[in-house]
Amino acid sequence: MPELEKNYDAPTVEGKWYREWLDKKLFHAEARRGGNPFTILMPPPNVTGILHMGHALNVTIQDILIRWRRMEGRNVLWMPGTDHAGIATQNVVERALRKEGKTRNDLGREAFLKKVWEWREQYGNTILQQLKKLGVSCDWDRLRFTMDEGLSGAVTEVFIRLYDKKLIYRGNYIINWCPRCHTALSDEESVHVDTRGKLYYVRYPLREDSGKHLVVATTRPETMLGDVAVAVNPGDERYRALIGKKLVLPVAEREIPVIADDFVDPEFGTGAVKVTPAHDPNDFAIGNRHGLQPLDIMRPDGKMNENAGQYAGADRFDCRRRLVEQLDAEGLLEKIEDHQHAVGHCYRCDTVVEPRLSLQWFVKMKPLAAPALEAVRSGKIEFIPERWNGVYLDWMENIRDWCISRQIWWGHRIPVFYCGACGNEWAARGAPGACPKCKSGNIRQDEDVLDTWFSSWLWPFSTFGWPEQNPDLKLYYPTDTLVTASEIIFFWVARMIMAGFEFMGELPFRKVYIHGTVRDNTGRKMSKSLGNSIDPQAIIKDFSADALRFSLMMVTATGQDVFLSNDKFEIGRNFLTKLWNAARFIQMSGKQIDDASPDAAGPEALALPMINDSGKGRAGQLVPPFVPVGQGFPALSLTPDEQFILARLDGTIAACAENLGKYRFNDYAKCVYDFVWHQFCDWHIEYVKLPLGSGDEARRRESLRIMHHVFAHILKLLHPLAPFVTEELWHKMGYGGEDETIQNAPWPVPLGCEQLARLGVDQRAVAYVEMKHELIRVCRNLRTDCDISSSAGVRYIIRPENDEAAAQLSADRDSIKALLRAEAFEVDRAAAPQKALNALSPLGAVFIPIEGLVDVEREIKKHADQLAKLAGSLAAIERKLNNADFVGKAPPEVVALQQERRREALAQSEKIRRVIDLLSGFHPG
RNA sequence: GGGCGGUUAGCUCAACUGGCAGAGCGCCACCCUUACACGGUGGAUGUUACAGGUUCAAAUCCUGUACCGCCCACCA
After folding, report:
1. ipTM
2. Averaged over A420-442, what is the pLDDT?
3. Which among A213, A335, A475, A526 counts the fewest CB atoms within 10 Å?
4. Nucleotide nearest to A876 (CA to C1')
5. Are A849 and A797 within 8 A, CB to CB?
6. How confident is the model at residue A732 (pLDDT cuts 50, 70, 90)?
7. Which nucleotide, over all strands, has the C1' atom closest to the CA of A339?
8. Could you tell me the pTM of the whole model?
9. Beta-bridge partners for A479
């Protein structure tokens, strides 16, 4: 057994065990293994990505689920991969080119794409390396990329199927256009940001009577150059007479009609709306209703085009400023008001999005949404926490068609071809040589590529080789739980569900666990631009990956946002150091035995489990308890404290399973934390120092064996949270052979009271130890109250409560004495509280018989205060019990509980009163 | 404009189906007790945002208010 270093040096991904996991393909799932599959898809990070806390939170949760299920013996597959992130990646590469003074057009499509692939070769794996440092145990051999050949094939296949079903169509519509990225965006990619803008009131003179004018209000005055009409509500009395009249559009000096449309809200602005069909979705609709020809006044780069007359070439915002000045100078600007409204921004570059009329490809979503809606409505797919069901359903019910074409180069090119000869348009796999209709070779492919999400939405099955049917796809689809953030419910989750039903005929996953957003401690979202992000790499360096994972889970309540600051990670670091030191303690104790009895089997043998968790036979089944260990050490009966720790361990095992099953990762982490620190370390290790230090060899070995049993279980319970250190300790403690990993150690199963009893765990002993702990706390308080230094030897006398307590205490005297570091601990049924400090415990009254140390007045006051407090709570209990409604309506067990409390409170008061009487007797007066 | 979440100890947050409001950090006192000072022992700290209501019983359920934060939305 390798000795543990005194200073805890956190194991890392560079360490021995992780490398071996990878070498041995421990994470590799195989269909032929069969069994009960458990699949998780890692949300593929962008190739351009670098690891941030959101990733860390996301993958830690998944890794916990995966390692837990792996230890349970499931056929586990965790699919990793990266996303080509069309616009984002293209932007990154273009930025690099710009530094060389070039644009993508200088290179041309082919050469540019070559550059992007080179970039991805060089930097695309950064995030994967970073993920490994966190200990994520995904199936690295299956790594996929959305631009891989297989996945690209799936994209083409899906496009063609939808195209043939007429669910994909091409048309001229108003889309969100990013003038910086030069591409269309989907509605989801345009993020609305509340902005303090201006509302400009502009006078449009009447043609017939230039002295009169109609005032329209607009937030984007530059678009007036594309106005083709002004609309008013047909019911609006103010304007009824103007309907059908002509106005002169200022600056452009064009004639435009006044039209009537129900869309116009008479309450807003002036009740008259300028109609600009080429630059506003509502106006586009109005224009269509009235047969008006749209007039495009802008270029793709956001500068005005030749239709803008004198403003041609001006940037849209520059144009706005100058145009307003001109209007003002001409007396056509009525007023400017402040106006709060939501403005769309490009989700990749934050540029203000321009609604723009253009020819794009769309997916008709309503038919796809139907089964996906049903799946969540019926509960076949569940969101956790539940409230996201509503968000999802709401979006799906109001789903709009999806704009999937992008005017960039990096991505899956739209597999549609056009014939220059006959005008034929068709979708095809591969590169056709000629038009299928007229056989002309004069064909060209559509220039656009598909939205990145058009490949991501196929991830649950494209990663398994779809459309090819194979054993992997059959076994591992559908997956189990999708773990992700709320930001991509619409982008990704909803679309995967739709694709799953459409192309696989089945849901892609059963559960969607939505975790919170990682924020800094002032509640702001962590982001590079704010400079408030905590770099997981730095945390790993300073605190270890295990500490990062453990701390994250400790502070993350289910589905709530996480507020982080550096010091939060001390929780995990301190805890894991504590664990390490507990291991050192056990190991040092083990060595003592080696030294003392050289013929005994080594400490490794001590780790023999008492309970059948070997993975063979029925889980949790008992093997004959207390298999003799080594030679000449017969099994002994368990001490009360050992029974106690085994009972608590069993409770912890049960609690872990329950919390994991409910995705309550913080409660899971907390219950292990509490058990390790406050049960095992605070009490059991302190307790066990006596038997381990005693000369009784058999007792020592037996105590040590229980320690190892409990500690091995702790490591297992902790492994999903802290994989590195638990693996390290698993081996260093000798629990696993050289080639065995804790990942394959069977997950502990709770035994329950009955089976525990067969092991020799008596609930009465468990109850006694609980009271013993309370007694020890009472004694320590007593000593503190009396200002006796903890190093001074103290003599305690206890007068036991009853015969049972007397027997238990007498048998356990030495242990209590040791835990108190007392000079003496005497059990005396006849002890009378002489001139002594005294206190009450569940097992009996305790005294420290030291004359002269007693401040009688203070003692009386102390007890009187206690009595008063007790009287208060007693009164509250009485009030309840005297309330006929309470007794009549509350459940019987709640009433019984109150009665029990009253009984206890009364008994306690009586005892305190007696003590006060006694103390008063000492009173000098 | 619609929807969702939050408001609990000095700070950051828990408290699953109503039944004695908890943890970590910080704070105070004492302690280098041979696993651990990234530690040990003990301690202090709450009108659960506010106002009503339901109930024997409310941090928890209902109604409303205030503030903070998200998401969605074509009122120019």
Report:
1. 0.95
2. 88
3. A335
4. B20
5. yes
6. confident
7. B76
8. 0.90
9. A509
